[in-house]
Amino acid sequence: MSRVLVIVPFPMDASNLELRKAQLRSVKLGDGIDFEYRPVRIAPANYVSQQDSVLADIGILEAGIQAESEGFDAVCIDTVSDSGMAALRSVLNIPVIGAGRHAMLAALMLGEKFSILAMWDRWRHLYTKTLAELGLAHKCASLRSAGLQPNNQSLLSGKEDEFFPHLHAAAIRCIEEDGADVIILGSTTMHEAHSYLAERLPVPVINPGPLTYRLADAAIKLRLRHSRIAYPSPHAPAAERLRTMGQAAGAI
Amino acid sequence: MARILMLTLRAPAVGASDFSANLDADTQVVHRAVAVAPDTTVSAHDWALADLAVLAAGQGAESEGYDAVCVAETGDYGLGALRSVLSIPVIGAGRSAMLHALTLGNRFSILVPNSRYYRIKKLVGDYGLDRQCASVCAIGAETSDSDETTFPQILAQAQACLDEDGSDVLCLDTHSPALASRLADKLGTPVIEPISLSLKLAESFLGLHLSHSRGAYPAPQVRKQPLITAIAETR
């Protein structure tokens, strides 16, 4: 049995963690693979500024830095921001799957131009960063949002009737006005809207969290992990210091 | 149960390794070589014939009950045409290998036999990946897993891709899992074996209920299935 660590980018209680785990139900998982969800101890309130990005990187690095010695076979990061992905790749020799980078590349396996559908515009910087890193901005038809305030704990629960039509309307504009032929959900927290949108839109809709579960399976079975040339190792991983940071954050 | 139709220009070599090796127990791969392949794939003339041959071999896949199609050729012959006529996922080994390489690093090199060099160069440009492709490296004649005489030369060329061309991920061009793992062990960098990857991705997309976009691959107004079959079978 392969074990995959899913790093959840906010501290949360067990019931809210269940809302994240619900992503497992929308995909047929590979044989012999098990997923363990772990919320971070260090996190920003949300992901809307560069301050938040620094905290997110540190929090996800802290949560996953021991994953290999803990016996995990891969790590999935449950955020389209890919926060902490590069840092974890630099220290781990097991696959580290970031939902954003993988969603954009998977979109180009299925079409020519993708749009990223976000809840609100404050997430824009997350996508422009990954697009710049990949050098694939010319493949992005648009970044559009539905102008909705997200909640990274309760997700979309109880707001389906209000939010889903707005998301659908924004997605239609991505397709009809911007020329997108694939839609990527801009956050793993939007997974509850995936089936509603996939049933109503004429193009593929990528659900980034579940995508990482299949790609982790592919990475493990094909024995493919990130390149050490692209992600060079640090001289001395600060595992102990990060653990202390995690404890300090827990006390605040 | 997922059934994947794997298309190639030529029948696999006797003793070719198991294509189902890394797939789920309920995934079945059925291999089909095209009826008539061009003798070589060095020119646009050959590619046109290869496009037709692959289209003919796969155009009925959906009505035959397959769940996905893999064009198990890095030249991606017939890929766009098959996507235009099929709603089930159609995966091309070349396109998916290049994009998957970018999940693992920032720049890739592709090691190809001389005979496929120009096709791969063309696809890199078609896919808008010139900036991400460090090099397309011609490695001489077609090779196989067990070819001890050519391994040192391929290893040296692969090393040069990393050291001189600036790539951080390598892609092979053929179904050579043993060669891929041997190179990866020696070089310490990921080496993608495109055929195994394309099958795994087909299985992954099925698990996620994803297929190619009709927006990018519009359907023909008039299907020409009998015509395609008839002309593809002529010799």
TrEMBL record, chain A:
Belongs to the HyuE racemase family. Gene3D superfamilies: 3.40.50.12500. It holds the Pfam family Asp_Glu_race. This is Asp/Glu/hydantoin racemase. It comes from the Bacteria. It comes from Microvirga guangxiensis. Signal peptide: none annotated. GO terms for molecular function: amino-acid racemase activity.
UniProtKB/TrEMBL annotation, chain B:
Pfam families: Asp_Glu_race (PF01177). GO terms for molecular function: amino-acid racemase activity. InterPro entries: Asp/Glu/hydantoin_racemase, Hydantoin_racemase-like, Iso_Racemase_Enz_sf. It comes from the Bacteria. Belongs to the HyuE racemase family. This is Allantoin racemase.
